[in-house]
């Protein structure tokens, strides 16, 4: 039974990888636009060139667009995963070890989701494939 299911879903794995990449890219992009433009999340925006928030937002926008489009996905995802690892250890880890307690769950999830894209590539629907 599970072999049949595995065989059926394997035919769609590269397409679902693209869906995963697009969702991760759009969510990462929204983190950047929230920091730089205050949209879609309501709140303050980072002052221009302010370290590290403004630069983090800029990286998140660039990486988010590239990952969403499937353009230079592996390199962009590698940079984004590194940024999220740094964000976790600089901003969240000093408060508490556990991500559930220090608010670092999004950083950890983004780090590993982007790291997965480094190793798997962009999937079937990517501009790099054109």
Structural commentary:
There is one protein chain. It contains six helices and no strands. By secondary structure, the protein is mainly alpha-helical. α2 runs antiparallel to α3. It has one domain (2-40, 47-124).
Produce the secondary structure layout:
Layout: H1 2-10, H2 13-37, H3 53-69, H4 73-92, H5 99-102, H6 105-120
Helix pairs in contact: 2-3, 2-6, 3-4, 4-6
Q: What features would you highlight for this structure?
A:
0% strand, globular, mainly alpha, 130 residues, 70% helix
* Strand residue content: under 5%
N- to C-terminal distance: 37 Å
Mean pLDDT: 94
Radius of gyration: 16 Å
Overall domain count: 1
Describe the largest sheet: none
Oligomer: single chain
The percent range for helix content is: over 70%
Estimated structural class? mainly alpha
Task: Give a short summary of the structure.
70% of the residues lie in helices and 0% in strands. The chain is mostly helical and 130 residues long.
């Amino acid at each position: 039974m599970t072999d049949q299911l595995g065989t059926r879903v394997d035919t769609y794995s590269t397409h679902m990888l693209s869906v995963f990449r697009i969702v991760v890219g759009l969510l990462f992009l929204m983190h950047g636009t929230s920091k730089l433009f205050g949209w879609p999340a309501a709140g303050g925006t980072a002052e221009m060139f302010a370290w590290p928030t403004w630069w983090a937002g800029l990286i998140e926008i660039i990486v988010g667009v590239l990952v969403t489009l499937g353009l230079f996905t592996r390199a962009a995802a590698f940079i984004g995963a590194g940024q999220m690892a740094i964000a976790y250890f600089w901003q969240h880890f000093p408060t508490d070890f556990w991500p559930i307690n220090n608010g670092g769950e999004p950083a950890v999830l983004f780090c590993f989701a982007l790291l997965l894209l480094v190793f798997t590539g962009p999937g079937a629907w990517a501009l790099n494939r054109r």
